Amino acid sequence: MLSEFALAGIYMPPFFFYACVTIPVYLIMRSLLARSGLLRRVWHPALFEFAVSLILLAALILYL
């Protein structure tokens, strides 16, 4: 697990790092889901995308 790190003299929590790493992965996953047509088939696309982003974030935290 990471500890706090300094960014321009400001201590940032590890969650900030995890979220920044997750964003590009999420954007790629979102484009793949949109191209496959899965986002049109779910009941609430925004809620589904939010759940996917949380799953990716949790997987990254558990992996690191």
TrEMBL record:
Pfam families: DUF1656. InterPro entries: DUF1656. It comes from the Bacteria. The chain crosses the membrane at residues 15-33, 45-63. Keywords: Cell membrane, Membrane, Transmembrane, Transmembrane helix. This is Uncharacterized protein DUF1656. It comes from Kerstersia gyiorum.
